[in-house]
Amino acid sequence: MADTTETLPLTAEKGRFSETLERVRRSSEYVVMPILALIVSGILFSIFLFALGKSPVDFFSLVWRGGFGTSFSWQNTLARSAPLVFTALCVAIPARLGLVIIGGEGALVLGGFAAGAIAIPLIGVVPSYVLLAVMLFASMIAGGAWIGCVGALRHFRGVNETIASLLMFYIAVSILNFFVEGALRDPSDPNKPSTAPIGSENMVGFIPGTDVHWGLLVGILLCGLLYLLMNRTTFGFAAQIAGGNLRAAQAQGLPVGKLMVISCAIAGACAGLAGFFEVAAIHGKANASLIAGYGFTGILVSFLARHNPLVIVPVAIFLGGIAASGGLVQRRMDLPDATVLLLQGLIFLVLLVSETFYGRLPFFRSKGAQ
Amino acid sequence: MSKFQLNRRSLLQNSAAGILGLSAAGIAKSAFASDLTVGIVYVGPRDDFGWNQAHAVAAAALKEVPGVTVVEEESVPETIAVQKSMESMINLDGAKMIFATSFGYYKPFVLDAAAKYPDVEFRHAAPLWTDADPKNAGSYFGYLDQAHYVDGVAAGLSTTTNKLGFVAAKPIGTVLRNINSFLLGARKVNPDATVQVIFTGEWSMPVREAEAANALVEAGCDVLTCHVDGPKVVIETAEARGIKCCGHNASQAPLAPNGFITGAEYKWETIYKNFAADLAAGTVLPNFTGGGFDVDFVRSTPYGAGASEAAIAAADAARADVTAGKPIFTGPINKQDGTPLLAAGANLDNYEPSLDQTDFLVEGVIGSIT
């Protein structure tokens, strides 16, 4: 306070330097707070482990080893992160408009189903890159339309987007089951109802030298693109204003409805892509294995990344690593599989609580503003 | 301000010490020192009173074998996660033998892992292996319909309404075969008996299983059995409604102290111990192994309070017959729509391959596949 006035007579250069320092200190809040939240949840989780008579040191070293300790662990982690990047984007983009979409799993399921279904008449008829391109667009359109509907329902009918997207997940699962166990079922597989396999020669391959499919790289590129869209374009700026104050945005003449529907459609298309890669890179066909919870873990990723598309990538890798180590923890420490879910839940809870501390800790407060 | 910095510094110091401690612990962790490490992957919790528990009971028995270490992982979904879990067991635990116990694990995950790790033996719990698949992969299966037949005999003598109820998951080959065998058992001792079946459409859907069980009781059924992953809900509902029941997969006797008759149980431990012994002896493992009472792969749950003297005597006799190879499918048998399946005097062997692909219900079963 006093020192700001004192620096005035000094050189302008020094003033600019302390200004930058000040800005860094203030914006560091967005980095320090999530890390603090992680540490606090780690401590709470350690207390839980102590109560069970297990050693937290063992636990965290196993998490390290299972998730990041060896090159195999890294591949395991990255393979699990890929779908999370897409489903996290499904939460992050509408979040700029203040919309909380938690039904990305539904768009993933439908996107995967659309990819598997549209492939049926094309398998063996068209070259594999055409087949994959058609599947890719089908999945994006299906996912985009699905979450786009959520945005439209919100704008035109005032339906709460959180509830709508969650309930629509159940509809998506029913649609998948209806067709996969009925009209589109592959008769050659009597036991696991699925669409016809696209064939290993048509599948999306792995990044050379790894067993991680190309979806991860696509996801990272998409995060970059969507970061630019949301932060460096008029569309993103308008979305941010609408998210900050809907009435004010309307008063400014911003097309709020259009923004909402388009953002939701982009979000749904991202989740649909996750479904595409599940079908085209992993299963080779659409079936109930699409419902694996990636859409729901994506919510956690996005919140942990504070809905910033660039931060989503490291956070998805972090949570993918926790998931990857879950098996090792189970096997070595004789803990139930729910243990890592509990850790994830604790992280989410502490993170939500930490949200209430923003702007309240004196260290991050601007001196000048006081 | 300075006080805060001091805290922060000490915090950093502490966490640095923590990280050092963690990595030291990670290095100190050595591999298991034993002759054979077996990895077992389950799709659900190990205490589900059903499919997974049946495998977990066998895993516990396998642990008793000297020189065998068992590592287990539960609730592993039928996605890339299962392949990573198996690889993690191989890479981080040194597993030389993997049992993948859920149907959807096989294609593509077990096949891919088997191709990638030719030195590791993979066995999968469903009759899916073909000559085209890797030689270090294979299938093992218990023909549970033999035990359902014995259940049917006991149930046929336990009903007063002549209506038996069957809660079934999906209308696929193995499930339909169990329903048919249950009816044939009941008809053997009680020609008026019918089996009313309700399909829930999912392997594990407790709410719908409870609704189905209640609906069957309302329809006049006085003995219930089921083919779902976890029969707990069906058995508990039957007990609560004051009727009798037969179990499935594992022992549910503790859930129904009044009405439990007997149950159809897998005895995977026979298979697991056979495999472990073969590996220890250095003999080549069979790619397919399957059987019923005759090779001790299935068993009947010990009789509960719901079993009458007559039912026990008839069920014991039926089990002795099946063990001796007497066929379950003895003509005349019609399909549900009245078309003949077997003429009088004709019969099907209990291991007749076409029964694996059962796509019909026999006359006397009420309910539709579609």
From TrEMBL, chain A:
Keywords on record: Cell membrane, Membrane, Transmembrane, Transmembrane helix
InterPro entries, per database record: ABC_transp_permease (IPR001851)
Topology relative to the membrane: Multi-pass membrane protein
Annotated localization: Cell membrane
Transmembrane segments: 30-52, 72-92, 99-123, 129-150, 162-180, 212-230, 259-282, 288-305, 310-329, 341-358
Record's keyword annotation contains Nucleus: no
Name of the protein this chain belongs to: ABC transporter permease
Organism: Roseibium polysiphoniae
Classification of source organism: Bacteria, Pseudomonadati, Pseudomonadota, Alphaproteobacteria, Hyphomicrobiales
UniProtKB/TrEMBL annotation, chain B:
Pfam families: Bmp (PF02608)
Cited Gene3D superfamilies: 3.40.50.2300
CDD domains: PBP1_BMP-like
Record-given protein name: BMP family ABC transporter substrate-binding protein
Top-rank lineage group of the source organism: Bacteria
Keyword annotations from UniProtKB, A to Z: Signal
PROSITE patterns: TAT
Signal peptide range: 1-33
Domain ABC transporter substrate-binding protein PnrA-like positions: 37-286
Keyword match Signal: yes
Keyword Signal among record annotations: yes
InterPro entries: ABC-Purine-Binding, PnrA-like, TAT_signal
